[in-house]
Amino acid sequence: MATNTSAPRSGAQTQPGRGPQSDRLAAPAGERLSSLVTEAADPRLAELDTMSVAQLAEIMNDADRSVPDAVRDSLPAISQAIEAVAERMRRGGRLVYVGAGTPGRLAVVDASECPPTFSTPPDQVTAVIAGGPEAFTAAQEGAEDDPDAAVAAIADLEVGPRDAVVGIASSGRTPFVVAAVSEARRRGALTVGLSCVPDAALSRLADYPIEVAVGPEVITGSTRLKAGTAQKLILNMFSTISMVRLGKTYGSLMVDVKATNHKLRERAIRIVAEVAAVDRATAVAALDATGYRPKPAAVMLVRGVSLEEAERRLERAEGQLRLALEEGR
């Protein structure tokens, strides 16, 4: 069962003297690491190395099946955080993920999928990974212990009050992530802390703490497993739900898809044909006129207007295709 469904602490203020150096000192000492749930050994797996492949596969599958339930237990906290993040983005802010190791790599993957899926500007959803881009393919394990680099990364992005920063750390104590969230909060950004342990240091810093209790890993301490799966599921929610709230879909259709290859052009054609209830040739003609942008193509066809008028309708509707189609009806 999740340990945190507490209300957001958006009105809390950073305490005097709480900077990156004090965060470094506040991180739990090494001898306390063994007390974390993410570092605990499951006694039922004491003879794991003697098991057959079939047994190991069944054990891992059983372990993975518990992750969605743990995420579901945290849905109240997750939903509150996403609502707040989407509101910041609606006002022109950015969604900034911060992580080290596996959480950092998951963050990079999630952020990198937003431009092709939703036609977002490259920096609207972005990720900071400890150790820099090289850490995505080559482990930079020592980088997670560098709070000063985290502060510098937040400063380089010029994070401010319109932005939302989501810190991800399975242990809830990674110095790089803790320092980044602390600095982001000091700059007035909305902060979210995503961890997999109760009473995490990250939770005490973040406006919106999320603690997903996935329990011990099949391989003790290997948080790329259940913890990583939980983080992937939750990051999917953050980016996807935020984009839905920003009008990037019509029903379940990705009407802001960037049609940069054959598969995506075909998807755009199907989307316009479905929304406008027209045949393929008509959808293709409208997309050709709009540079393969499904939203204005759909408005042109449904409302029988020019490209210029379609774009004006979408602007008045703040990009919401449904509102643009219904305007004046």
What does this 3D model show about the protein?
- By secondary structure, the chain is an alpha/beta fold.
- The chain contains 13 helices and five strands.
- Strand 1, helix 4 and strand 2 form a beta-alpha-beta unit.
- It is globular, with a radius of gyration of 22 Å.
Key phrases:
329 residues; 5-stranded parallel beta sheet; Helicase, Ruva Protein, domain 3; Rossmann fold; 2 domains; alpha/beta; 13 helices; disordered N terminus
Write the layout of secondary structure elements.
Blueprint: H1 20-26, H2 53-73, H3 75-90, E1 95-99, H4 102-118, E2 125-129, H5 147-156, E3 164-168, H6 175-186, E4 190-195, H7 201-205, E5 208-211, H8 226-245, H9 262-276, H10 280-290, H11 294-303, H12 307-316, H13 321-326
Parallel strand pairs: 1-2, 1-3, 3-4, 4-5
CATH third-level topology of the largest domain: Rossmann fold
What spatial form do the alpha-carbon principal axes imply? globular
Number of E-type strands: 5
User: CATH top level of the largest domain?
Assistant: Alpha Beta
What's the rounded overall pLDDT mean?
89
Structure, briefly:
By secondary structure, this protein is an alpha/beta fold. The chain has 2 domains: 20-245, Rossmann fold; 262-326, Helicase, Ruva Protein, domain 3 (Orthogonal Bundle).
